[in-house]
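Justification of resources, computational component.

The compute hours requested in this renewal are based largely on the per-chain cost of generating structure records like the one below. Each record pairs the submitted sequence with a full structure-token output. That output is archived, and it is also reused by downstream analysis tasks.
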Amino acid sequence: QYVGGAALMVLASLAFETRTVTINGELIFALAWLVLVLSIGAIFLLMVMIRDGEMSKVASLFYLVPAVTAVIAWALFGEHLNLLQIVGMAIATLGVGLATARPASPGRSQPMRARASR
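The structure output for this chain reads:
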């Protein structure tokens, strides 16, 4: 997936870009953010969440990514959120809350976690 996407972007950049790079603080910050936070940090956080929680609950959190991204865009860049978007975010948040909530009745048994042998 990454190789295919990279090949497409290289071809597009060769066809449409000027092939000059201005190295400045903004570029260095953007690259550091993309590599350290969005790539390494996100994968590390995902692995910690999978290790410490149930996979189904971790997978449910992915449904919040569009809503969180929209809220960040609203807060940082002044993006406008309409009523339909806000209602959709609320429904997604409610769904994730229901999917990740613990059972309310004390009679239900919790799934046992496998313990790793040390």
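The first helix runs from residue 2 to 16. The helical segments are 2-16, 25-52, 55-61, 65-77, 83-100.
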